Amino acid sequence: MLSECFIASTAASGKTPASASLRDVGICLHEFQPTLNLRSTFKKSSTAANCLAVSPSHVFAAQSEKAIVHVYSREKGNQEATVPFPERIRSIAVAGGKNGDVLVLGTEGGRLILWETCTGRQIATTASHLRPVTSLVVDPTSNFILSGSSDASIHVWSLVDLLSFTKPPSGRDRQPPNSPIRTFSNHRAAITSIAVGHSAGRYNIAVSIAEDSTAIAWDYRTGRLLRTFLLSANATCLTLDPVDRAFYVGYGDGSIQSVDFYKSQSIQHPLHDPSLHSTPVQPSADDRWAPPSPDSGAAHTLTLSYDGMTLLSGHQNGKVLSWNVGRKKYASTVADYTHPVTNLLMLPPNGLSHPSFDLTRMSHTIVKPRYDHTLSESSQPLGTVPADYTFSTHLLPTVSRPSSRPNQFTEAFTHAYFPESMLEEGLAELAAFDQGNTNTNVPSHAMSTGISDEEAFAKDAQIAQLENDLSLLKKKASINATARQTTTDEVTKLRADIANLHDYITELHGKQEQAQHEKILRQARKEERETRRREAWFAAEKKGKKGDAVLKKLDAEDTVMTSDTDDQSSDEQ
Amino acid sequence: MAYMAMSLHAVNHRLTNIPVKQLPPLASSLAASLSNCGELLSTPQSQKSKSDSDNAVQVHKLMTRLASLLQDRSVEGRWTAVVLVKTLVEAGQWEVLRGSEPFVRGLIGILAKSDPVSTKKMSIITLTRIFHLTYQYPTLVREITTPSLPGFITSALNLISIKPSSEPVRKLKPNTPFLDIVLNAFGELIARHPTIFRPFTAQIHSVLQSIIGSTEPTYPEPILEIAQQLFISLHNCAPKNTSGEEWKNACRMTITSIHATSSYILRAVVEQWESVDPSLRQLSQPQNYSQEVGNGPDALGLSSWQGLPAGVNRLVVLLRMLSGFLDTATASTVTVPLGSILDLTARLNMVTYPSDGEIQANPQIGRAEREHLLTELPRIHAACLRLLVGIVKTFETAIIPVAQTILEQALWVFRAEKFSREVRTAVYDLVRTLLSHMGPCMTKQGVTSLTGVLRACCHDLLPPPSNQTAAAEKSDPKSKSKSSQATVNADSFLNPGLKPSRQLSSSPSFVELKRAASELLVAVLSHAPTELITPALRAEIDRTIIMTSDKNAMLASVLNPFATMQGRGVGISIMPFLARSHPAEMEVDALIRPRMPVLMNAPGVNGYTVADDEDEEETETVLEPQNSTETSGFLKPSVTPNLHQDMMDVEMTPQSSSPTMNKRSFAQETEVPTPALSTATGGAQSKKVRVEAEEPKAPAQPSLGAASPATFTGTAAISVPSSSITATAAPKPVVSMTGPSASMSTTTPQPRAVAEAAGDDESDDEMPTLNIDPDTDDEDEDE
């Protein structure tokens, strides 16, 4: 079933939670949709902001004011390890795509530590930051790390360069190894938070906020500044819309502000319009959403739901508030953890079937870091992978594994009964079996008593050939049968036609006869009339009357009587 | 249901009344009608009503009849029964499975009888399916699978092999037709029932050893593949908690075995390689160079081989098996010895075909064997590269630490052996998968090192050189040597620096090579930093892309334009070619006519709160075809109502008089300052005028607000051309406005409204004579 959860972590405070289930709890896995409820909790943790990272298998929590990271197993629901580090950890992030195999840690001393959780390899960078690394993000391609520090600078690091055994030829611009590739220093005060866009392409953006009340959108691939936003106060936390259309910041008074990139009506992509790069923008105060009550305290962390329409914020008073992005206002209080909520991470929803969400492997346990001696020692030839570099993971069965080609078995296995081809093959074999039952018994017996492979092979070939012939003959026979059928059909049809024609002829004959008959009748009638007229004429002449007048009268009578006036009568008139 | 009951009855009737001998030809149709009765067969029998009890009788009758048919004396009867049992099991699921015990017994019985091959094959498949389906029901596993699976394994093993003695070793039968099916069936079941398979592992292992190790009659690739997979899966059967260890041992042994084999195969040359693993450095044993190359039984227990061809075959098989270790599911957490594997590939990839004839030859080996080895090298390397592809695919981003190492190995091989098509295909695939993980971070040097690969890739994709005419004159003396080729190679006009790759030739039939090459181009353009690709190379890539008209490559090129240097010309894009060659593709349209719903840009918060009837009608106005792609997502029922509600908000951007919306705002009576369409430019201008001519019509209809929905759809239809034009002229995000109260109900009226508009065309008098089809009819009206 589709469900969406978030993970929240808190910093320890003097207050004691009201409910017993929250006692001692530092990290909560909370179901957000469809129903709000607490799923599970991890105990004994106190994290500052930006100090919680989640991989599909584990939760990593850097403890505030300590140099240790607690590792919790999400499967077992318990604390799996406590990993000590040489320095205090001020921020952590998970790199390595959907598997999250690399943990990046930002230290108090301004360096990064990379820990490959599946191999135990650990790498430290130069201390390029002058002050503690307070925020860390990894870009969607898992190639770049962005680290923000309270020294007001943001470094961009190449994850590939840092991790690679073989350093790329001649290094980058004579820099010492394991140093950042780029530095963004447009901020004037300590960096509070960084968010990175969701594109894997080259035009991805980063947004950073600092204590100088600005938010800057910039291109971390080039270090180019895209836009400066002048905020109304110092923002404390930041999150980006899933489509990178806007970002949201939280303030110390608990309010939230949305900053929309697409405000202006520019024909270019607003962020990539060079004419606007140097113009700072002041987002209107209308976009600032007030908290329900003033006592909620500072917003420490923000996260967005999968659809990007619900914003969650974690506050100083332990409440998690949800905000409706469409309505631009506070919606409800989601949870109350008593302690200040310092980190909120929305997890990808369960139950969406999408191949890119499927994991092909899973690390049930982490490998604790050991110091990478290949970097310090020069015993190994430079750039080679040590033989004891091993990777522990559980390879999962996947449905989508490209099975080379559809084979007979898998096809039949998932079919509703058996594929047609297989049934046909079987039928042919049955037919052959039936025939051969009597005479092939002998060779099959001979085969079992031990004939050489070649012979068996030849036999097989012969059988296959015979089967082929058989099927060919069958096909021919069926073709013959159809042909015969069609011929018969044709003949029948022709016969029927002939009969019809005969009928027609008879009919025509009948009509002809009738016509003849009628003609004769008419002739007779005419003759009769002539005689009558003649007789009348004679009779009239005899009586001394005008014979013609009588004739005319008769004629009139005739036309009335006989509708058919034929030529002959008109001729006579 | 009635239909199902009837067809079930009909099937029963035919099964009982038609002579058994004549059943097989009917089996297919019987199975088809049975599989349509799934609902009826899977209904629990507890729900007793009158008709149901009748159905239950029929189902019972069918099952009894099939069980008896399985025991029938004629082969035809058994054959039919097997087909129908599979159908019944698939259709009936649990209801049938729980009574499938007699079926299982009958099917296993068939395996021992002298039935035709197809009956046995189908029995094996059916049995596997039954065991597979029962797996999710523990009770059924206890009742059916656990008691009968050992019997099945034994009879299946008997089909493919002979057990000569009491030892747990089996001898494979030659030429058995069941090998494929049996191995597949085991592969399907072994991970689910490891404990039942455990007593048989030794027997299965011995069978697999002889398949994988067989050199004389080599088995076809599918069988070899499934045998390797099963071999790897055997670790599932290890006693509890040792499966990871078992897997690791098998993997290590495979690596050792490959090392041992290559020591013999590569004896004709002096290897430069030195292992990073100290234990392997003193591996080389003294060899008897006077004998033909060969090796005795190795670490995996595979049989010995003699002669170089057999040795190379063995090596390739073992390499494939090693990559099988990385993509077969494991029982638990395993430790993958990445370092050792890369050490191994480094060793094999280091011995390459000598580019200038000099190679450190071992003087004790004759020239014939050395030359033979050199010709076989590409085959070995292709297998190696495929193993590396497998590693990258399995580990994905976790490969980053070793990605550079892998890339270097691939480039060694490529430089020396790019004449081999197999090697090229494998290198393209490998570079492509690597680029998607490490591309964005590549340095200038890294990209430059890929130049050779990319050039060859372009060359492979281009049509045969006979199509090129321009190159004919530019031929240099070197190409004279290849007088057999009538026309001159395309490379001479592409770039004179391409001489080494002259000898490559491709013909249109190499589908795999072309696929790999075009995918590589896409990967390079989309992952590697474009500014680091030299202009000459980029021009070549773009030309190739245009010639092949490959949509993905074209999109990649357009989306990652060549970065212009300061003051050096303008940005070049192959977008026109893309638009010409794929005008109807969705991606192309999305690229050149973007319509991103920009959501949160309405300034007025209050705009949202006005939720009355008028607004509701206006929502229909804007439900235009453009939005349909976005809205269609919301038409689907969502699993979580809450989520859905929120998603609706996406579309519910408050309406306002924001000038961005003015293209369509004429439909809103109040806010109609008919826009000065200042954004329209160029060629779009003429069209724009036409649309503008339309616009006064709509306001001239004063009753718009109250008119029928059909009117609105008509009006909305006009706005389509205008908005799409503005999108072309200025790729400005189109605002999607949907009324505030637009919940589920607003989306449904859309199709209806359109339908009405279509239907009411003549009858509705007060409707303006607007037609739905925006493009053609507009013109008609204007004239």
TrEMBL record, chain A:
Name by which UniProt lists this protein: Pre-rRNA-processing protein IPI3
Segments of skewed composition (Basic and acidic residues): 542-556
GO biological process, one term: rRNA processing
Assembly mode: Component of the RIX1 complex, composed of IPI1, RIX1/IPI2 and IPI3 in a 1:2:2 stoichiometry. The complex interacts (via RIX1) with MDN1 (via its hexameric AAA ATPase ring) and the pre-60S ribosome particles.
Highest taxon, organism lineage: Eukaryota
Similarity-based family: Belongs to the WD repeat IPI3/WDR18 family.
The WD repeat ranges on this chain: 126-159, 184-228
One Gene Ontology cellular component annotation held by this UniProt entry: rixosome complex
Pfam families, per the entry: WD40
Predominant localisation class: nucleus
Span list, region Disordered: 272-294, 542-573
Localization per record: Nucleus
Compositional bias per record (Acidic residues), positions renumbered to this chain: 564-573
Family annotation (InterPro entries): WD40/YVTN_repeat-like_dom_sf (IPR015943), WD40_repeat_dom_sf (IPR036322), WD40_rpt (IPR001680), WDR18/Ipi3/RID3 (IPR045227)
Organism lineage string: Eukaryota, Fungi, Dikarya, Ascomycota, Pezizomycotina
Record keywords: Nucleus, Repeat, rRNA processing, WD repeat
General function of this protein: Component of the RIX1 complex required for processing of ITS2 sequences from 35S pre-rRNA.
TrEMBL record, chain B:
Biased composition (Polar residues): 653-668, 738-750
GO biological processes: rRNA processing
Domain Pre-rRNA-processing protein RIX1 N-terminal as annotated: residue spans: 8-217
Record's compositionally biased regions (Acidic residues): 611-621, 758-767, 774-783
Cross-referenced InterPro entries: ARM-type_fold, RIX1_N
GO cellular component: nucleus
Localization annotation: Nucleus
Entry keyword annotation includes Nucleus: yes
Annotated spans, Disordered: 465-505, 608-708, 720-783
Nucleus among keywords: yes
Matching SUPFAM superfamilies: ARM repeat
Keywords attached to this entry: Nucleus
Family according to the record: Belongs to the RIX1/PELP1 family.
PANTHER family: PROLINE-, GLUTAMIC ACID- AND LEUCINE-RICH PROTEIN 1
Name of the protein in its database record: Pre-rRNA-processing protein RIX1
Source organism of the structure: Aspergillus homomorphus (strain CBS 101889)
